[in-house]
Amino acid sequence: MHRIARPLLLCLVLSVLLGACGFHPAGSRPLPDVLRRVYVDVVVPYRVSEPPLEASLRARLTRQGALVTKEAASATATIKLTNLKEGRQVLSVGPDGKAIEFLLVTTVEYEVIDGGQVLVPPGSLRVTRAYTFNTEQVLAKEAEEARLREYIQDQLAELLLLKLETQLSHQQGRVDGAPAAVVDPLP
């Protein structure tokens, strides 16, 4: 009896302590009320398909219990994303003068609006990732770059959501469930 009760009691005590410190598993952060019914407006000129950032942001909002509407009129807030830019910079060159390492840079500007009233003032986020390029594996490296770009935009969606949750939670005067301040990741 004691062999079973002791580990069970220890698990119970640790669970209570972990819950009391404010820990939440990933994806279980409470959304601010204003984001419960939201419209995502991504301004991308000459758009052929939905950018990965938009798809990822919609999916993350839905997972957290938000209703992502198809029209701004039926939403309590609009997340407006503009100037989504992707770039690539050479970090280093080999002895033959060819680039062997690149830095992928993706930036986006955002704001949250509710019926013309600005809830979150315009801001911007930037995520970078470095990768090496081998001229003998061109096709594989191009595919790797495409996957990295999707990963970067997914990470941008997560950072954006954290930033919006923090700012909107503080505006509501509710800091108890607010996530910690966002720190830009290292390249």
From TrEMBL:
Annotated localization: Cell outer membrane
InterPro entries: LPS_assembly_LptE
Keyword match Lipoprotein: yes
Signal peptide bounds: none
The entry's keywords: Cell outer membrane, Lipoprotein, Membrane, Palmitate, Signal
Single annotated GO MF: lipopolysaccharide binding
GO CC terms, sorted: cell outer membrane; transporter complex
UniProt topology in membrane: Lipid-anchor
Residue runs in coiled coils: none
UniProt cross-references to PANTHER family, sorted A to Z: LPS-ASSEMBLY LIPOPROTEIN LPTE
Subunit description: Component of the lipopolysaccharide transport and assembly complex. Interacts with LptD.
Family under the similarity heading: Belongs to the LptE lipoprotein family.
Name under which the protein is recorded: LPS-assembly lipoprotein LptE
